[in-house]
Design brief:
mainly alpha, single chain, globular
Length: about 160
């Protein structure tokens, strides 16, 4: 389900309140940038991920100071369209901006796995779990990677 932060505008929504970290709140999100993110999210929800990517890239150019808000969303949209290299680069930048954000690390781990970098993916997923042990999705991703490694080692 979608939750919105009541401290901010109802336009600043995330899939989980824990995805809004104190570190993220240090980065500016001017109203026009927030409106662009809202529009990109709405477009993505219709399934037009390429249009959402265009919207997010335009927001990044116009509001580079809000990159910490934009990069994670952009990386996920790249993953959804199979643009793995772009997702990897974008999510790596998101982690560089917010190194203690568990969700960004988990998504970066997923992007690493999507390009076959399983060792690095495992490291990032483990770091994510160190930051948020309750993230079931990250735990499941890590289990898949560990299983893949186990199978690879038995070949």
């Amino acid at each position: 389900h979608t939750s919105c932060l009541s401290d901010w505008s109802s336009d600043v929504c995330s899939s989980d309140l824990s995805t809004i970290s104190a570190d993220l709140l240090r980065y500016p999100l001017p109203t026009p940038a927030r409106e662009r993110l809202k529009k990109a999210r709405s477009i993505a929800q219709t399934g037009d991920h390429l249009a959402a990517i265009r919207q997010l890239n335009a927001a990044l150019v116009k509001f580079p100071q809000s990159a910490a808000w934009i990069q994670p969303l952009l990386g996920i949209e790249y993953l959804k369209t199979g643009q793995r290299a772009a997702a990897l680069k974008t999510l790596e930048q998101a982690v560089a901006l917010l190194p203690r954000d568990a969700v960004n690390r988990s998504n970066f781990g997923l992007s690493l796995a999507s390009v076959g970098e399983f060792d690095r993916a495992e490291q990032e997923l483990r770091r994510s779990l160190e930051l948020d042990r309750s993230n079931l999705t990250t735990r499941q991703l890590l289990e898949v990677i560990e299983t893949k490694r186990s199978l690879r080692n038995h070949d």
